[in-house]
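Hey team,

Filing this mostly as a record. A colleague (T.K.) asked me to run one chain through the structure pipeline before their review meeting, and I want the input and output archived in the tracker in case anyone asks later how it was produced. No errors, nothing strange. Just documentation.

Input sequence:
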Amino acid sequence: MAVLEVRGLRVSFKIDKKWVPAVEDVSFSVDAGETLGIVGESGCGKSVTSMSILHLLPEKTSRIEQGQVLYKGTDLVPLDNRAMSAYRGQEISMIFQDSMTSLNPVLTVGRQIAEACRLHTSLSEGEAWQAALELLRRVEIPSPEKRMKEYPHQLSGGMRQRVMIAIALARNPSVMIADEPTTALDVTIQAQILELMKELKRQSNTAILLITHDMGVVAEMSDRIMVMYAGMVMELGTAHDIFKDPKHPYTRGLLAAIPRKDKDVDELYTIEGTVPTLQTMPKGCRFCTRCKEAQPRCFEERPPMFTDGTRQVRCWKYEPARQEEA
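Output structure:
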């Protein structure tokens, strides 16, 4: 059973006094103990989707216009901030992109983790401090007693990221949203953080929503992959299927752009053009202006998600009638 399910999500931003959709018709689910990787270029709606789940977008300039976010059957969309506080951190936690700006620079690491431990509990300050110390040990930070008394700027990037994971784990959440958890980390530290997340998932059976543009990270971590482009889901399937046989032209382009050790090329493949802005979205398929396989229909009609075996693909090529003709 899905612990988190998003159905038909549409999120809009207010631009020049008009509401413009940034994310449309986004649907997916994630089970306990499963990792769903969400990939796509910058500006494709990955972070907007994740922040909408926890109502973290600015209220005055953004709104959820359609859809449901079901956590264990409860729809989070209509809840106000007070009601959402029971879910943030406690049931669904989030690791943000930049640990340096996400941590409070004027509070020690220990105090910040302890505050997360005390939220919605009856723990005393001493008990929360001990719980925070145990969390630092759990995320394998060396000399945890010393680190508890230090400030974020005194820690390396890898240590700060481990602190962020410790805070995310403070209330033993059922779902962890990791938004670019390895950004700006060197390869060695990145591997350590990913291995830590896999081990924590094994221990707690936590569902992980992994947001990244790094296909290598996705290949290592994900059970299923959701490919987003310009605020819409283009393809959704198992990691094995998508890497072995990508269906959507955008997915194929992303994979073709990855450098490979077994192939010697003079020039890496690139997807020509750029992601359209919110105000210049194409009328039809959002990828049509960059797609080498686009047909006239692609520019006029937006395709729905078609099911092709175990895969979901948003492309007219996989319309059932066309599949039968082929």
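Quick notes for T.K.: The chain has two domains: 2-91+171-325, 102-170. The CA atoms of residues 30 and 64 lie 20 Å apart.
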